[in-house]
Amino acid sequence: MQQVRAKKHLGQHFLKDENIAKEIADSISGDYPCVLEIGPGMGVLTKYLIVDSKVKELKVVEIDKESVESLNSNYPTLSENILSEDFLRMNLDDLYPCPYSIIGNFPYNISNQILFKLFENRNKVLELVGMFQKEVAERVCSKSGNKVYGILSVLLSAYFDIEYLFTVDENVFIPAPKVKSAVIRLRRNGVEKLDCDEKLFVRVVKTAFNQRRKMLRQALKPLGISLENIDPELMTKRAEQLSVEQFIDITNSIKERI
């Protein structure tokens, strides 16, 4: 096995278990033959993607210079497709001409930002398979009524079918994290556009969850819009109790008042 070094300053725990690496690679659906791996490190997952017949074109983005040198050395056929960049600053529109998948063992400290970037690029990135801190994975997969249901739960489930694939123990990483991890898969659903003003929808969802312990009639006051005569039953609920469809209904009611 290749030497795996930990870059604590990047917030990343490197996977050392070959079986789990292969299982993650196998979770790519194959419907989108262009694949981008985020944070490949020393290439434990990368090598399985290179030989995967479902992956026709693989690019990897890695910000750490030592890891980039290792990838160039160990996978010379990949050299032209190693992007030494910060994924969060990349313009994904320029990456592939076709829809594609994202895969990775994602650094814990930027995992939420990666998911928001997925949301923003939802019409180009049609699938994501990733390892996250277990509590983040559970939050993304949660349904309304669950105490961990939040902004990402709503925004992502509006456009993606989300699956919790499997839990990963701490001892398969270097260094071992203090928490368990989990692998999830998000695949673009058939919703091309929500039946509401989508920018306002995002604003309503974020505002509601910013004061998630309050009823909506209080939590949505920062919008500066009259909430009178909006479905009173919904207005007495908290954000975590609402489905995507109910957030759409509220968005349409608020839109009429703008």
Overall helicity: 25-40%
Q: Indicate the proportion of strand residues.
A: 15-25%
Number of domain modules:
2
Radius of gyration: 20 Å
Total strands: the figure is: 9
**Mean pLDDT over all positions:** 92
Cross-sheet strand order for the largest sheet: 4-3-2-5-6-9-7
CATH topology of the largest domain: the name is: Rossmann fold
Structural class: alpha/beta
Order of helices and strands: EHEHEHEEHEHHEEEHHHH
In CATH terms, what is the architecture of the largest domain?
3-Layer(aba) Sandwich
CATH C-level class of the largest domain is Alpha Beta
| Morphology call | elongated
Biggest sheet: strands, sense, closure? Answer: 7 strands, mixed
Poorly predicted residue ranges: 1-10
CATH superfamily of the largest domain: Vaccinia Virus protein VP39
Distance between the amino and carboxyl termini:
60 Å
DSSP helical segment count: 10
Describe, in plain words, how this protein is organized in 3D.
The chain is an alpha/beta fold. It has two domains: 8-188, Vaccinia Virus protein VP39 (Rossmann fold, 3-Layer(aba) Sandwich); 198-255, Orthogonal Bundle (Helicase, Ruva Protein, domain 3), CATH 1.10.8. The chain contains ten helices and nine strands. Helix 3 links the parallel strand 3 and strand 4 (82-83). The longest helix is centred in the C-terminal third of the chain and has 13 residues, at 198-210. The N and C termini lie far apart (60 Å). 38% of the residues are buried.
Short description:
By secondary structure, the protein is an alpha/beta fold. It is built from ten helices and nine strands.
